[in-house]
Amino acid sequence: MAFSFHIGETGPLHLCGHRGNSIAAPENTFAALRSCHAEGGRSCEIDTVLTSDGEIIVLHDLSVDRTSDGTGPARTLTAAEIAKLDAGSWFGPEFAGERIPTLTDFLMLARELDMGLEIEVKEKVDLDGYIRELKKIAADPANLERMMMISFDHASLKRIKEEIPGILTGGIAHERYGDPLAVVKSANLDELCIDLAVFDLDDARRLKAEGIAIRCHAYAPKKFEAALREGLDWTETLKTAFAERLIDTLSGDDVAWLRRFVEENS
């Protein structure tokens, strides 16, 4: 059966690990993807940039410094140079030897695990080169069906959609829009990725009525708990959203916590 980012009439809510199950494994690595799957995740949100020789790699920052033992911007290093870096020891000694994967390799593992990928475009320098490589990757239908390209830059997503037929795109929303449906239509988006703090039930109902998928980002447990202490309780909103099947994907750093929260509030 083909992968779908919509829960459909009978399908379960997707649990999505933010950069993989990043509370338990180094972000954007195979270990984080496998951990997400082990905890019941059906998809992962990951980040991507371009190397100097035109490979798309799975990396949040523009440089390799924070999450590996290397230094420098990814765009100044070749894919082969980046492949030699240790991307796990910074998180814990048990993850020594984890690598910064290419998007192609990450997709291969996602296919093996039957998971979808919400792939954020972090490339800021060479969007043309990024799209050229993305076209090659998306030419494989088995990759294309489980790719949702996401970004804060909705104009870039509109261009990607125009240049790669059949690719899915999701706009990230950290604020409420006056007319979210108009925003979606302006960039021909398939999904809106909405932070929980600005998730609105009426907006979600309008979007779902138009066939737009919704990913709601629910943070990590500590942030949720801090919001509760500050008088912000999103529990009832989420209960209603679950009951009305308004959320296709619920994402966060701790997939086990997401799973328990959904079980307790559905």
Automatic annotation (TrEMBL):
Domain spans labelled GP-PDE: 13-262
Leader peptide range in chain numbering: none
Transmembrane spans: none
Domain of life, per lineage: Bacteria
PANTHER family: GLYCEROPHOSPHODIESTER PHOSPHODIESTERASE, GLYCEROPHOSPHORYL DIESTER PHOSPHODIESTERASE
Name of this protein: Glycerophosphodiester phosphodiesterase family protein
Organism name: Nitratireductor aquimarinus
